[in-house]
Amino acid sequence: MAAPPRHATMQSISNGGIAPGTDRPQAQQTQQAQLSQQSPGLRVPSNRKTIYDRHLNRSRNAELSRASFAFLFGEMVTYAQRRVTGIQDLEKRLNEQGYPLGLRLLDLLFYRSTSTSSSALSSSSTSSSPPNRPLRIITLLHLIHGPLWRLLFGRAADALEHSVSPDTPNEYMITDNDPMVNTYISAPRDMSMLNCAAYVAGIIEGVCDGCGFETKVSAHNQPTELWPSRTVFLVRFGDPVMEREKVLERAGVK
Amino acid sequence: MTNRFRCISVFEPELIGFLHMRRTRVDKVNAELVTLTYGTIVAQLCQDYDSNYQDVNKQLDKMGYNIGMRLIEDFLAKSGVGRCANFRETADMIAKVGFKIFLNVTPTVTNWTSDNTQFSLIFEDNPLADFVELPDDGRAQDELWFSNILCGVLRGSLEMVQMQIEAHFVSDVLRGDDTTEMRVSLVRYIEDEMPPEEE
Amino acid sequence: MVVYSFYIFDRHAECIYKRRWLPRPTSTVGKSRSDTVSGAAPTGLGQTVRSTDDDSKLVFGTVFSLRNMVRKLGGEDDNFVSFTTSQYKLHYYETPTNTKFVMLTDLKSPSMRIALQQIYINLFVEYVVKNPLSPTEHPGGVGVNNELFEESLEQNLEVSSREQVHVRKGETAGSHRSGHIEAIIYKSGISKAQERHSCNRAHTAADSPVVKHTVLRAPACDGTFWREKKITGAQHRSQARQGHPYRLFM
Amino acid sequence: MPDNTRGVFSLIIINKAGGLIYQREFQSGLRNLSTNDYLVLAGTFHGVHAITRSITPKIPISQPAPSPATSSTGITAPAASGYSYPNPGVPVSGLDYLETDKFRMTCFQTLTGTKFLLFTDPLTGSVDTIIQKIYELYADYVMKNPFYQIEMPVRCEAFDRHLGAWLRGRT
Question: Where are the domains of chain A?
């Protein structure tokens, strides 16, 4: 299976620091960033304890106040808003900010789902969570709809739908009735089209790209009487992915 | 969104019963989401200011200041605390109540100056810096203060309650120091803008 | 119940009467009795007393804007009754003739609306309006400060405050008076000299050993009045206590 | 959900400079004014509130009681100038409650200077819990909204929605 086109090699920053170049399509030129853990350059505290000595699941169930996320996210939106004009650019920028999270969360998801193999983590999809990466679109979407949402927001997403119209077979929809990121956000009337959950769309995009499913994800407001901030994430897979889907379908790979 | 969609799976049926419960606000979020979000903010700043770490520090402080001016209202509303009598009480309030509510950590308050106008906050655990390793470009560990947003938050929130302070990091584990320490000093009490009190 | 100050404003928005009682600050036992003495002993005041005239202007400004706000919000027939802060409570009563009565008390005092009405009906109308000597208008508070009105005001507040506080037993005014109780009688417009003069005149009269209580006796400046009053006025005080609270003079 | 919120007429929020930033009527009971009148009302009340604070009666301390040497005070608050307030334990505040024949106004001022004026009918109980909840909703849906600029008029749809829902009985 071809290596995922834009999977960036792990930067020396496991989390912050320089994000992979935003222009994801062309391959990253990060080969020269040395990956060695104890590179001479980085000083470490005298007790020689670094983040690599800590267990990855240490902060698995750690919780912080919702307010801290709300303030950080709000400031991120304000900062992005000052640097762009127009809703599309703002959503694009939020998407770009979410993308690296998707890449990192993907590995965390697999580490946690295979190591504990507890069924609770596996989504309600038919097969138990596959030990390796999802190969089919459906399993990927279930991974996002269940474990990823549970990891991020503590509950599964609300609905997962596939477009039935023949001319858009590559469109899927993940629905969240009350996205946590938008709880405190009220866009002004002139920006009513804006949906700040584009950040989460970026995360989904990061996860899909990380799995080798090149895709475009966008967040759309679909308010209802009961759920005024209901959001739908439209996932549009690229054509190479659809070809591969057909080939795998014929090969009977689940 | 004109085309119609076939439902693949609604969320697990047994959860439908909890619909009502789910609607109530859960005011806790996954710590990793907050950590990763902060990480991407810093990453974006490093990119926008193309690794000029002084500017990144300044911008983080400014962002923290904006947050602080809003966060104080949330803090007052949720904790219902009254005005602090003196700076020492303010320091305890910050460490034991403020940081506890928002970052679920309690830094220790030490190194008071004799005139009680300066103190230090020692962070044994800094959730913002989880999973983080500074860029190995030989400059970051000397110039970048990764959690500098916290200094801005303190400055912004205390200014809203008529206390002008200055805060900066003195040491950070990410830089290879042994502790993460922030130095906070009181500049002055800001008089109320209301008409001057009777003498 | 502690009364801090009392103001009357006429319809020209002028303070025609102002009375402040500054109870002893740190009386450890129970309520500091609002001992009231007319006429400030001029020498007694060590501290700088805040200039009292802008106080009444501030109070009037507050009361006036609140009254207008209430009229605007609640409708023309709504009237402002009282407001409280964390330290004191201000009671307000306005007559149809736009004469405004304002009283500042502590937080524990019940509604003083009735009391203010009583002061208006029984005292102000009786002893100021109907007093042939005092002019119909009171520029600068002229004519409001007649003894009759003052005296009855004391009684009224004293009795009404004691009514609420169920009489402190055995407390004599004399023993508590340690020189720094002072009540500033300030009538805007009257020069300080004239005020001192009226106070001295009362002072000499009160010192004479046998004080026959008469209606027109002006209370002395330094509280001696209370001691005499207690001696000669005992039956009066007890009489006031059993009688309904607002019958003031025999 | 306090059942007696039916007596809540309207709410006004004033920023620390005295500017009106929010006004909303929940139930008729007061005369409704033009926004301009509310602006004027907010401005005057801001001034009046400050004055009510400054006319707090001051009780002279004859022999200046040795102010308890709070050894640990940093820059001490302004030294007592020979006066003490009626109840020294409680910090001085401006007007908190205003009673009239037809309505009762509760004024809650936050430490940051923002004032919440709640107009209720004179008999409505637990006004403090109502206004505390409003402050929490304000801290959540206004302060955490990145599109709200501090000290500016509040136009946050989520705040209106949650406030309306809470006050009209639906949680």
Answer: 65-117+133-254
Q: What single letter denotes the amino acid at residue D16?
A: K
A139, A129 in Cβ contact below 8 A? no
- Cα gap B123→B97, rounded to integer Å: 14
- Do chain C and chain A touch with ≥3 beta carbon pairs under 8 Å? no
Q: Is A184 close to D161, i.e. CB distance below 8 A? A: no
Best residue of D11, D99, D102, D108 to probe chain C, by most C CBs closer than 10 Å: D99
pTM: 0.74
List the domains of chain B with CATH numbers: 31-189 (3.30.1380.20)
Q: How far is CA C142 from CA A42, C15, C238, D44, in A?
A: 88, 11, 34, 32
Q: How many helices (H) and strands (E) does chain B have?
A: 7, 6
CATH code, domain carrying D14: 3.30.450.70
Calculate how close chain D gets to A186, using CA atoms only, in Å: 5
CA distance A65 to A72: 11
Q: Does domain A65-117+133-254 have CATH number 3.30.1380.20?
A: yes
Amino acid at C220: A
Q: Do D138 and B195 touch (CB under 8 A)?
A: no
Residue C229 token pair: 């009053």
Cβ partners under 8 Å of residue A116, min gap 6:
none
- Which domain range does residue C104 map to? 3-25+52-168
Instruction: Answer yes or no: is C160 within a domain.
Output: yes
ipTM of the predicted assembly exceeds 0.90: no
* Full pLDDT tens readout for chain A, 254 residues: 333 334 333 333 444 333 333 333 333 333 334 443 444 677 888 777 777 777 777 777 788 899 999 999 999 999 999 999 889 999 999 999 999 999 988 888 888 776 544 444 444 344 444 456 788 899 899 989 988 998 899 899 999 999 888 888 889 999 999 999 999 999 888 888 899 999 999 999 999 999 989 999 999 999 999 999 999 999 999 999 999 999 998 988 77
> Coil, strand, or helix at residue B2?
coil
CA distance C229 to C151: 12
User: Alpha-carbon distance C215 to C147, whole Å?
Assistant: 9
Residue found under tokens 């000083």: A43
